Amino acid sequence: MDHLLRHKGQKVMIDTTAGKLEGILTGVVVDHCQLTIGENKALHIRFAEIVYFEGGLSRTFRISEKMISLAAR
Questions:
Q1: pLDDT at 67
Q2: What is the DSSP string of 17-67?
Q3: Is 71 exposed, middle or buried (0-12, 13-18, 19+ CB in 10 A)?
Q4: 55-67 burial, b for 16+ CB within 10 Å, e for fewer?
Q5: Which of 13, 18, 21, 26 has CB 3.0 to 4.6 Å from 36, enough for a Cys bridge?
Q6: pTM given for the model
Q7: Residue pair 47/1 in contact by the 8 Å Cβ criterion
Q8: Backbone phi and psi for residue 10, each to the nearest 5 degrees, phi listed first
Q9: What are phi and psi of 46, to 5 degrees?
Q10: Distance between CA atoms of 19 and 37, rounded to whole angstroms?
Q11: Burial class (CB in 10 A: 0-12, 13-18, 19+), 14
């Protein structure tokens, strides 16, 4: 959690048990983080589901079709 907090406000890639997500890390709390995709889509990702993450990425957005369908649920 502390390491994620250092990347708050930055573009990150988070690899989860369901796949990879890229966006701006906009929140980190006790049990999950918030990743903002595009203009107004916020995804809340539980720490238990995170495999790894990369910080300091460029500010372009990519998201897989699988993650779009998962986020729409």
A1: 55
A2: TTEEEEEEEEEE-SSEEEEEETTTEEEEEEGGGEEEEE-S--S---B-HHH
A3: middle
A4: eebeeebebeeeb
A5: 26
A6: 0.73
A7: yes
A8: -105, 160
A9: -70, 140
A10: 15
A11: buried
Nearest to residue 41, comparing CAs of 23, 18, 65, 59? 23
- Around Cβ 12, how many Cβ atoms within 10 Å? 20
Q: Mind listing the pLDDT tens digit of every residue in the chain (73 residues)?
A: 678 888 899 999 999 999 999 999 999 999 999 999 988 899 999 999 999 898 877 544 444 555 555 555 5
